[in-house]
Amino acid sequence: MHDRPHRSRGKKNPGALIWLVLVLVLGGGCASGPKIQSPENAPRLRIGVEPDRPPLAEFGPNGWYGLEIDLGHRAAKAQGFEAEFVDVSQIGPFEALGDERVDVITATLSAGASPRKGFLFSRPYLQLGLQVAIRAASLAEFEPPLALESAGARVGYLTGTPGGAFVRDQLPLSNAYAFRDPDAAIRSLRSHRIDFFIHDGPKIRAQAARYEPSGVLVLPRALGHENYAWVVRARDTSLLARLNTFLDRAMASRILEAIYETWFPETPQPAE
């Protein structure tokens, strides 16, 4: 399998306050897979992303936009490639990467977690805090964050996410409720079946905003942090090396700061 970007015959697809630190910016590289010609004769780097994750990635009338989209374009352009963004929300990021539908994905890498078998992670380029959604009417009653740590606190999380790991490791006295759908978790919060819902900052804010008129809000205090990195297949070591090389170079530039300030205008906290 050649470690080169794809060429596509078709048209290019349309493409916190959390404590957040933009640590590194991803660079370009080649991707593995068959070589096919695009009308512009430009090699493509297929990047798997998920929509509805403002300000990281969203899809609107004019195509993809967000921090990860800006990073992806710069990563590809730096090496002379065209970025092609692929919605992997239905099949799942790792599944799409393993099936060679995309060449690289973004993923959360929990602190101390082992990389998934068959995949390699780049150096982290983004640091996001978990946040908590709560009923506005219950804010004074629960007095978070102490209530969150109290015995019997009813805490919701999504299965297989850093929020679930946080509940398991940091809230052993809570009554934990697993959900597969964030809408279901928010509905349970509104109907008093749970008292807190923990999820990563951009996703939970986007979700809660839809329910804000009905009294759902997100606490500004972050709960620890999770690192975001790019992921490639384990055999694509050359691609990973090029990504990490560009990361090292970009660390000394102001490109990452410009992208960060565009999507997160608040002053970031120093990296730990």
Q: What is the mean pLDDT?
A: 76
Helix content: 25-40%
Shape: elongated
Looking at the overall shape, the CATH architecture of the domain at 129-223 is: 3-Layer(aba) Sandwich
Q: What is the number of E strands? A: 12
* Distance separating the two termini: 39 Å
Going by CATH, the homologous superfamily of the domain at 129-223 would be: Periplasmic binding protein-like II
Query: What profile does the largest beta sheet have?
Result: 10 strands, mixed
How much of the sequence lies in strands comes to: 15-25%
Features:
28% helix, elongated, disordered C terminus, two-stranded antiparallel ribbon, 272 residues, alpha/beta, 12 strands
In short:
This protein has 272 residues and is of the alpha/beta class. It has a domain at 129-223: D-Maltodextrin-Binding Protein, domain 2 (3-Layer(aba) Sandwich), CATH 3.40.190.10. The chain has helices spanning 67-78, 93-98, 139-142, 162-170, 182-190, 201-211, 237-251, 255-263, and strands at 44-49, 58-60, 63-65, 82-87, 104-109, 119-121, 126-135, 154-158, 175-179, 196-200, 216-218, 223-233.
SSE arrangement:
Blueprint: E1 44-49, E2 58-60, E3 63-65, H1 67-78, E4 82-87, H2 93-98, E5 104-109, E6 119-121, E7 126-135, H3 139-142, E8 154-158, H4 162-170, E9 175-179, H5 182-190, E10 196-200, H6 201-211, E11 216-218, E12 223-233, H7 237-251, H8 255-263
Parallel strand pairs: 1-4, 1-5, 8-9, 8-10
Antiparallel strand pairs: 2-3, 5-12, 6-12, 7-10, 7-11, 7-12
